[in-house]
Amino acid sequence: MGNELLLGNTVNTNASWIAAQVTSLGGQVCRITAVADNLEEISKAIREAIRRKPNFIITTGGIGPTFDDMTLKAVARALRVRLKLDKIAVTMIREHYARRFPKRRISLTRPRLKMASIPSGSMPITNPVGTAPAVRISVHGTEIFCLPGVPREAKAIFRDSLSKAISAKAGRKKFLEKWITVQGLMESRLAPIIDNVMRKFPGVYIKSHPRGGEGRGRPFIELHFSISSSGPGMKIERQLLGALRRLIVAVSNVGARVS
Amino acid sequence: MGNELLLGNTVNTNASWIAAQVTSLGGQVCRITAVADNLEEISKAIREAIRRKPNFIITTGGIGPTFDDMTLKAVARALRVRLKLDKIAVTMIREHYARRFPKRRISLTRPRLKMASIPSGSMPITNPVGTAPAVRISVHGTEIFCLPGVPREAKAIFRDSLSKAISAKAGRKKFLEKWITVQGLMESRLAPIIDNVMRKFPGVYIKSHPRGGEGRGRPFIELHFSISSSGPGMKIERQLLGALRRLIVAVSNVGARVS
């Protein structure tokens, strides 16, 4: 979420970090969306996401004290509920300031209480490294988690409170991956070889990433092998390694180098 | 676009680069979306984007020779048109190979011709640094541009072929920005000051980015001032500097340091 992403000032590293975590927990990320700090835009994006019926929607950013922190209001609007001042959230914020400034009395001004105004029916989640609590709310089988935009805070809350929920949903699903590099072969030459290996090893996904491009110099392609399955670990690994080996043999036969 | 973004393997730097370019040309990016390499997912995302009636939709990735390069097929599906083998695109690809391998005869295999199969009614755009031509197609007042995913290729085509179209649409709109750093003040304390300055300088947008967080150590906040307007350049700059000055005075009055 946020204008800084749409202005191109900030690269969405929160999204990549969360996506990598979800993947390694056996989950599958279906979409990443960045929208402006605008009430209508955010709530539209939330409504669209709900309609796709995912198990989880994770938002980052927009839950702080400033005027343009409006994610919670937008979630409330998307769910047609009101914001309410949550007592537990107020306590979390008060305790945060008390810990941080043991000798000062920090009064709960409006911008500070704003961080405790959360959608009716939602639950605040402790932020172990910042002020604004995160928020969790369910709707039609989808769990929505609203995390802070500050990466350190988003990560801490994800680790504390989301990872368990996600791996519980993913069940025994495992994700394995391998990278290799192919030199001396154009991507257009590699394409039918990949097709062939993927047909022989269904379940293994091979994605090619041309680096340096077909445009100049020697072609140099990174290949990403992955498999996501709830089968026994040994069998999954055998599948992945089988596909890997078959591809290496095929590209070596046409004179390419693999590393 | 692309699984690598959803797996968290790749950070979406193409999106940030394009967003920064569009912003500096006076345009406004309303949304950034990443979806899986899946025909239905991509065409759904394209249809949703068309419904929002933007001036431009820019896609990156999925126009190469491999089986999972399916952006053009997805665009065709979203627009309910067919893919057709485009003669100009074939020539572009043939000439690219001839330039790159002057001594070899590169035959136009199926994966290579795939890059010349573009939606009916679209136009291929020369890729000066790679093989796959980019594609341009109009629908209901929206111009769709499909760029390659390789950053070097996407950038070259953007500079050659998109920047003019975007700045023509943006008209005389200009975008100015400034960053400052505020130390010794919590974001919750800064919030009402920002509100106040923004009320005095409508048009100027001030966004606060807590770095290091409110959680530990000294608060340290980056403030981003921006204005996007078609007014005379001098006046816009005066607005931005006026807002900057007023904020600096206000935070200095409560004992914060600005740099």
Written description of the protein model:
Two copies of one chain form a homodimer. Helices cover 43% and strands 24% of the residues of chain A. In chain A, a hairpin with an 8-residue loop joins strand 5 and strand 6 (134-139). Chain A is an alpha+beta fold and 259 residues long. In chain A, the strands form three sheets. Chain A has a four-stranded mixed beta sheet, with helices on both faces. A four-stranded antiparallel beta sheet of chain A has the order 9-10-8-11. In chain A, strands 3-4 form a two-stranded antiparallel ribbon. The longest helix of chain A has 21 residues, at 233-253. The first copy, chain A, has helices spanning 3-6, 13-24, 39-51, 71-78, 87-100, 110-114, 151-170, 187-200, 233-253, and strands spanning 31-35, 56-60, 83-85, 117-119, 123-125, 134-139, 142-147, 174-183, 204-211, 220-229, 257-258. Chains A and B meet through helix 1, helix 2, strand 1, helix 3 and helix 6 of A and helix 1, helix 2, strand 1, helix 3 and helix 6 of B.
Give a topology summary.
2 copies of one chain form a homodimer.
Chain A: H1 3-6, H2 13-24, E1 31-35, H3 39-51, E2 56-60, H4 71-78, E3 83-85, H5 87-100, H6 110-114, E4 117-119, E5 123-125, E6 134-139, E7 142-147, H7 151-170, E8 174-183, H8 187-200, E9 204-211, E10 220-229, H9 233-253, E11 257-258
Parallel strand pairs in A: 2-7
Antiparallel strand pairs in A: 3-4, 5-6, 6-7, 8-10, 8-11, 9-10
Helix pairs in contact in A: 2-7, 3-4, 8-9
